[in-house]
Amino acid sequence: MSPSEQELDAALAAAHLPALVLSMVHLTGDPGWLKPEWRPTYTPLARGDIGVPEAEQARLRAAARPVIAAHLSGELKPAPTPGPELVRQMMDFIAGTEIPAGYVDFLSDELALSGDSSKTPDWSEDERRAAGSMKVLVIGAGMSGLLAGIRLSQAGVPFEIVEKNAEVGGTWFENTYPGCRVDSSNHMYSYSFEPNHGWPQHFSTQPVLLDYFRGVAERYGLRRHIRFETTVEAMDWDEAAAQWRVRLRLPDGAVRTETATAVICAVGQLNRPRLPDIAGRESFEGPAFHSAQWRHDVDLTGKRVAVIGTGASAFQFVPEIAGKVARLEVFQRTPPWCFPTPHYHDDVPAGMNWLLEHVPYYDKWYRFFLFWTATDGLLPAVKADPDWQGPPTAVSQVNAGFREMIAQALAAQAGERADLAAKIVPDYPVGGKRALLDNGVWVRALKRDNVALVTEPITAIEPAGLRTADGALHDADVLIYGTGFQASNFLWPMRIKGRGGRDLHATWDGDPRAYLGMTVPDFPNLFMIYGPNTNIVVNGSIIFFSECSVRYILGCLKMLAASGARALSPRVEAHDVFNARVDAANRGWAWGAPQVSSWYKNEKGRVTQNWPFALVDYWRATLAPDPEDFEFDKATAAVA
Length: 640
Ligand code: NAP
What we know:
The chain is built from 19 helices and 21 strands. It has helices at 5-14, 17-28, 54-72, 84-95, 104-111, 125-131, 143-155, 171-174, 206-219, 312-321, 350-358, 362-373, 397-414, 418-424, 441-446, 504-508, 542-563, 572-586, 615-621; strands spanning 136-139, 159-162, 226-227, 231-238, 243-249, 255-260, 262-265, 288-290, 304-308, 327-331, 338-340, 436-438, 451-454, 458-462, 465-468, 473-475, 478-481, 495-497, 526-528, 568-570, 630-632. The strands form six sheets. Strands 3-2-1-7-19 form a five-stranded parallel beta sheet, with helices on one face. A hairpin with a 5-residue loop joins strand 5 and strand 6 (255-260). The radius of gyration is 26 Å and the shape is globular. 44% of the residues are buried.
């Protein structure tokens, strides 16, 4: 096809120029495109600024124009895939810095220039045959469960997915509150092997995300494997038969027990709403609901509304409802940090989508840019310096500088409202909790005449409203809980009994741990995706973690099939050593700092949620299971 002049102009105007340069290297085979004067210099929090003078940008666009035209007219085919040394130079170019040597194989795998990645199952015929007699049960058809289904079918392993809801999508099916959208850039928050060149926004809204996951379920033929409205209530490991006995609640309410060789739990961390433990909660007379169970039948127009919580969910729905209600009181316990992100609600320019679709490798390098700059590249800003002597509002000099920059941006938004500025700047370090993306709508909503940010602690919920510590009654017609999820309560409310009848939740005793977040000693052939210590605070998309976990879990199934054993579970020592490392490392980050309290920590103060290393470390640790880390069912053969 030949693009029109206007199409090309629009595309070049919207291009992320460093990604465009790298596409040109692919198309022409000429590394001469990596000119020092076109190399980007990024400024923190100043997206879009690549530090290349306008005149050079114009030169670059002019040079790219005939190359793209020649490619689209069929005259120019992409050159052979560049060798590793050139790819390395290309990575350094787009990152605007030298990528550390330890990242190159990891990032090359993420980039998947040739289409292959370590995450695609690569099973021999023998392995497929051996696994053919397995029956794997996946719990959940959200982002992780669908992914597990895709990889299991690619490997030829028989499986079924059970899903408690009537549709796929998990979090993207359940959270329908006004303003719900993704807060990791969509060109990265998508499966690495399923790019979408048509995201309407950089951070698309919930219906768009749900459509994406529905589309994936269709394309991979997953629906015929899924049993909807089916809930796992309990699972018991049957030692004699070496299989899980799974008690299911069926759509008609009946209970049935079925068996599975292995179970993959893909139930998410942020799935079961948490209501605050405030006296009198049941007494409120008006409608009261949680953000994840939004009552669309309750018309908020002209109502007095109270919102508890100022986390990621409230941050999105408060600006949406503020203009509709008569009065809105937002009850804040701790303010969130927010990163200035002016393009948070912006559409993806049509020219950008055109480039993603038509210019070879542009999509891969744009994703790479997002991946590098929004993931491990951010870690130094939240690393705790053990010698830090400054105030507890930061954990290092770099962190303090970051704090200053963001605090100023928040205070500038509050403007003449000094009272508001004092309330919205957190006193804990940046990175203590996941920062939210700020394009100004939050503070604008809080500044409205009909909105108040209440920081007085809530002492009781009464029939007419909320009572605060100063004795005031804040009357309300509707109460909305933006109070988050029972995140530390992994796999709850399922009842899971492993070897010797050991109960998983009793074993954890409020302190869930797993080996690499996936397996637990004495719970054979049981795997978790997004399990303990696999969440991230600043670096990246959870889809990356799920892809790594699924690769590893399939590696375990392959190892099991090849071994001839009936079951595997991690060795206690491997599990304990790993968890000791995790705990020590978590203390070295802003989110592990003692002055920070959050849902990342359990009641004992241990960080149960977060991965305390870099993404590259999870990638490397999950490349393939090490047989030495596992015990194999001794009833039959040992591992080869
Ligand atoms: P959250 O981050 O856990 O926030 C809960 C809020 O409720 C916090 O402000 C918390 O205050 C407050 N709260 C809890 N109990 C309270 C009590 N008893 N009294 C007063 N305030 C109370 O929950 P969320 O906003 O639903 O978000 C959870 C996670 O879901 C996020 O971190 C994110 O990972 C994910 N999420 C993502 C998006 C997205 O954009 N993609 C959107 C929504 C959610 P404290 O901070 O003081 O505890």
